[in-house]
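Lecture 7 notes: from sequence to structure.

We start with a single chain of 202 residues. Read the sequence below before looking at the structure.
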Amino acid sequence: MIDDDLEAFISAIENSTRREILRSLIIDQSYALQISRIIGVSQQAINKQLDLLEKANLISSAGYAPSNLGARRKIYRPTGFSTLVADYSRNFITVKRYEIPLEPNSMEERENIHIEKPSELLKKIGDVDHQIDELMRDRNKLIAIKDHLMGKINSYISTMVPDPTSRLVLIYYVDSMDPEYVSRKLNLPLNLVMQIVETYFR
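Now the structure, written as tokens:
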């Protein structure tokens, strides 16, 4: 099941203009007018998209830049770095967001990066991409196993659980494995959720 924060994140990045804004800010923090010139979209439209990205916690203020034309310009920087993983399988669908644990580079690390040749950096990036691809292939094998197991549990729920409320509780429980979440989501007493789960899944 998808919570409100995840919905806001998905909504924010589904728009191509907002993704272009984020790509621009990843390279260098900037203000609306400068971003509009880089992307080729009106400043008014950029301001609207920046507001949405800020509400989704994907960008934040980095201060203000002086302007000869009047009011100071708000400078933005990217934040909220994460990985979004979506599984759409025959027997289940899940969407999860994982925070990327980025730590500030130490001075020594920054110096090492500076002395490395661009060709060496590109090779390292390629090596990391290859490792990520290997992990994803292994992950897909596990997803196939999960799909098979989910098919069995879904069949059990549909054939052995006659009560619609109990079915819904079990479906949400299998998806989250969290009875408190199911209780909040369905607005049911926690003890009732636990009773239903224990009755059918003991």
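The beta strands are 30-31, 59-65, 73-78, 82-88, 93-99. Keep this in mind for problem set 3.
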